[in-house]
Amino acid sequence: MAKQELNTVYISERLAESLRPIARAALTTVVAPMGYGKTTAVNWYLTARAGSARILRISVYSDNLAIFWRSVQTAFAHAGFDLLADYPCPTDASGGSLLCDDLCHALDDGTETYIFIDDFHLLTDSRVIGFLCTCACRLPENVHLIVAGRDRFLPEAQALRLGNRVCRISVEELRLNHTELAAYARRCRTPLTDAQIKMLLYTTEGWFSAVYLNLRTLAARGTLPDLHADIYEMFTDAMIAPLPPALRTFLAVMGLADEFTTEMARAVTAREDAAALLDTLTAQNAFVTRTGDGVTYRFHHMMKECAARSFQTLPAADRRAYLDRYGAWYAAHGQYLHAMNAFRASGNADAWLGAVERDAGILLSSLPKEEVQRALSACPDEALDAHPLALLVLMRCMFNRRCIPEMMQLHARFLAAVRAHPEMPDAERDNLLGECDLILSFLYYNDIAAMSRLHRSAGSRMTRRAVSIQTDGGWTFGSPSVLMMFHRTPGALEDELLEMDACMPYYYKVTGGHGQGAELLMRAEADFLRGRFADAQIGLERAYARAEADGQINMALCCDFLACRLRRVTGIAAGRADARRTSLPPHRPAWLHLADAIDAYDAALDGEIAHIPAVFAAHTLGTVHTLAPGKPMIDMIENQVWLSQGEAAKVAARSAELLAVCDAMHYSLVALHLHLQAAAAYEQLGKHAEARAALGAAFDAAIPDGFLLPFVESYGCLRGLLALPPTDTAAAAFVRRICEMGEEILARRSAARAGDPTSAALTAREREIAVLAADRRSNREIAEALYLSEGSVKQYLNRIYAKLHIEGDTRTKRQQLAQLFCKT
């Protein structure tokens, strides 16, 4: 009798035909229950194209988005793409759209590319489904997404939208029919009678894994299994039970891993012969496979389920030892979520808290709050007392989730932990207590005096950097202005500036320079609002120098906001701001959104509606994740956009709600801008009494600190209202200064437009590029002359054409630009 070959791969002609449209589809969904051969079918299809196509395989192992994102980054890196290496996982529709744009640009090289996402049913986040549908609509023709899972995930509306760009493969294509089952049995060299084929087809309904296991049982016992056999028992009996004890234990232990290497298997099982055992398993078992990288192994889900059951039969002490080795391996390789899960499963609270410390709250923040609290409640007091730093990390995580009562409970536990160790070195105690002060300071956000006391305390205690603050993260929570964040009381500006000057050096010391330049920028913004433009320009340059030297892009963007405001009223070029807008890394959506807010405010004040970024112009800010402290500033900018679009009624209607938020958060300066917007809106609507009341509220917020510029920036909208001076002498003098400055700026801008239609519209950098383009220089020549990339030059030219209202194809646009500059 010929030797049986049960591990053979069989793809029926019918299934092969069903797979053929993948090459033409943007998205292919392969949906069927476990064991129908989804992965096998797709891998067969991709293997046939491996020589000429680029193939990326991404496996889903849990519902954790952070872990999935790590798998995506690894797959792209393995394929030779580094664009995702430092790319944070998108958390909103806007960030997903940016990622889609970058993927389209990177993959659009004509090479057939297949991106295979397996076991998608494990990932239930609906945002991922939306992102995949967006990608399917926008990816270039050479890129094909293949998504396999157990549950239908593609909404019918999206399927209709995709039309013939989607290929759907289901159970009907994957299950074996009578002819195919007989052919498969012959391929396995397992002769079956017609009666056995009919019985097997009846009991399995063409379910591939069940057919395979039945043939394994037939080969081992000479008869097919009982009609009512449990599939998992059948699997265990056929695939695990016959193995030698050492191999059976090895399989039970490694079945806990999502995927693993030989080195990892050797470390976890403490077996030097791990490589030989894996060779044996892969040779004998179709449910243990090597992935595309050639070094990583994974188990089929049915094998994992049965291996997990076998693991539970091991002695408790052995299970704990294996789990602790898993945790140690993961922690040593920076996979802290996996490490936490392993240590939690082993009951090793001490090691779990150690992993929390090393993670510093980065990946921990992706876990549900309830899961973190359950793990925390399982930690005995002595373990908590031994890990005060972990308690600080957990405190910060609870603050980020706005779980303040839980944060304060952890604070009490932290203080108890410090008291429990009188032998602790003074330096270590001071570092812990200092970092605790730093974390507690966030509870007093916007109250500089209270924050300053805690920052000074932290700075005086600590001799190391804080663990819970990442220096490359944002500092302003999405706000483009430091002054808008921290000016809370009219008339208190000087005290606020002094407090800021005093507290920030301590904060920089303990955070490694996070937010460098904030106090300098806040003072420069104050000078600007008071009309002290020379002082504002000097302060701005100091803030720029500090922020850029320390790599604080968030703060540099806030400097750009002030630079653009200065440019509007003084004509001083904002070259840094223009250059940064075209050089921001695309994988940092928060910075791109902040740049959009700056552009939106600038364009709205100028009435340049066509230049307002789309997310503001279309009012789709709901697709952008904005942190709560920065949202009032973004809402204020959107209000300015509404006003520039002639939606006065909407601005008036929104004012009360937005002002209430500002009042609750003590955002006095943001409220001042909202009052001015409301005044302009009411005046346009002919509601003069309401307009005067709003203007009066703005005066009350502005006069104590001499804030002229919010009125001057909106002078065109407020000109009629300001023509009626208030009766109060101080207020009347304040209004006269506003009108003098407003009229001067309007006259200067009018003269600039009359003398040179391009001077008011273009920035200094844009004009420089426009002159070279008008001189018939190519994009490459311009790039070389100005030390820019060709892509940046192209972006600049598109903005120039839009600002000068030049239309047509590339050649005619260049001709129109040349004619315009000849005339001027």
Write a structural description:
The protein is mainly α and 824 residues long. Among the domains are: 13-174, 3-Layer(aba) Sandwich (Rossmann fold); 178-229, no CATH class; 315-424; 764-823, Winged helix-like DNA-binding domain superfamily/Winged helix DNA-binding domain (Arc Repressor Mutant, subunit A), CATH 1.10.10. The protein has 43 helices and eight strands. A five-stranded parallel β-sheet has the order 2-3-4-1-5, sandwiched between helices. A three-stranded antiparallel β-sheet has the order 6-8-7. Strand 3 (113-118), helix 5 (126-138) and strand 4 form a beta-alpha-beta unit. Helix 33 (631-644) runs antiparallel to helix 34. The radius of gyration is 33 Å and the shape is globular. The model has no long low-confidence stretch (mean pLDDT 88).
Which key features would you list for this structure?
Rossmann fold, 43 helices, five-stranded parallel beta sheet, about 800 residues, globular, three-stranded antiparallel beta sheet, mainly alpha, single chain
List the helices and strands and how they pair.
Elements: H1 13-19, E1 27-31, H2 38-47, E2 54-59, H3 65-78, H4 93-107, E3 113-118, H5 126-138, E4 143-149, H6 156-162, E5 166-169, H7 171-174, H8 178-187, H9 194-204, H10 208-221, H11 231-240, H12 245-254, E6 260-261, H13 262-269, H14 274-284, E7 288-290, E8 296-299, H15 301-311, H16 316-332, H17 336-346, H18 349-359, H19 369-377, H20 381-385, H21 388-400, H22 404-419, H23 426-441, H24 448-461, H25 482-486, H26 493-511, H27 518-529, H28 533-549, H29 553-570, H30 575-581, H31 589-606, H32 614-617, H33 631-644, H34 648-665, H35 668-684, H36 688-702, H37 709-713, H38 715-722, H39 729-755, H40 764-774, H41 779-786, H42 790-803, H43 810-823
Parallel strand pairs: 1-4, 1-5, 2-3, 3-4
Antiparallel strand pairs: 6-8, 7-8
Helix pairs in contact: 4-5, 10-11, 11-15, 12-15, 13-16, 16-17, 16-18, 17-18, 18-21, 21-22, 21-23, 23-24, 24-26, 26-27, 27-28, 27-29, 28-29, 29-30, 29-31, 31-33, 33-34, 33-35, 34-35, 35-36, 38-39, 40-42, 40-43, 41-42
